[in-house]
Amino acid sequence: NYFEVLEDTKEKVVDLLKKSVRPEFINRIDDIIMFRPLSRGDLRKIVSIQFDIIRKRLEETGIKIDISEAALDRLAKIGFDPQYGARPLKRVMQREILNELSKQILAGTIHKDSVIYVDMKNDVEFEFQNLEAVEEL
Questions:
Q1: What does the pLDDT average to over 6-15?
Q2: I want to staple 62 with a disulfide (CB 3.0 to 4.6 A). Which of 50, 84, 112, 129 is the partner?
């Protein structure tokens, strides 16, 4: 049972603390909270939430954006660190998505009323398609 394993692990953590930390410090600890590792599903939800934040920010400026499942999977993969969990994800989103969008906005290829689709060019590169420009051709 998951909860039995959790309690057993919690007891082991307390025992380790008692062996390595002074009693004065242990008395200051109110509770120990155990977290389970993030699953792939958890990571995808986190990536989707972070991308929705970007989408809403861009919609305020009149730019619409969508992303493929493959691109979401890639962000989840490179935005996860076994030691730090999903903490690196915001930096990855900044580097891989926002920086490129910013460059294209400054270059004038993305503007108000643009519709952008983010997909994978290959296994490692993101591709930003301006659907408005494609429709004009």
A1: 85
A2: 112
Identity of the amino acid at 49? I
Instruction: Please choose, from the candidates 100, 102, 131, 99, the residue with its C-alpha nearest in 3D space to the C-alpha of residue 115.
Output: 131
For 68, other C-beta atoms within 10 Å of its C-beta total 15
Q: What is the 3-state secondary structure (H, E, C) of 60-99?
A: CCCCEEEECHHHHHHHHHHCCECCCECCCHHHHHHHHHHH
Backbone φ/ψ region at 35: left (φ over 0), alpha (ψ -120 to 50), beta: beta
Question: Distance between CA atoms of 55 and 5, rounded to whole angstroms?
Answer: 40
Number of Cβ within 10 Å of residue 97's Cβ equals 20
Write phi, then psi, for 64 (nearest 5 degrees): -105, 145
Q: What is the edge-to-edge ordering of all strands in the sheet holding 126-130?
A: 64-67, 115-120, 126-130
The pLDDT tens digits for 33-63 are: 877 788 888 999 999 999 999 999 999 999 9
Residues 6+ apart with CB under 8 A from 15: none
**Which of 66, 74, 57 is CA-nearest to residue 132?**
66
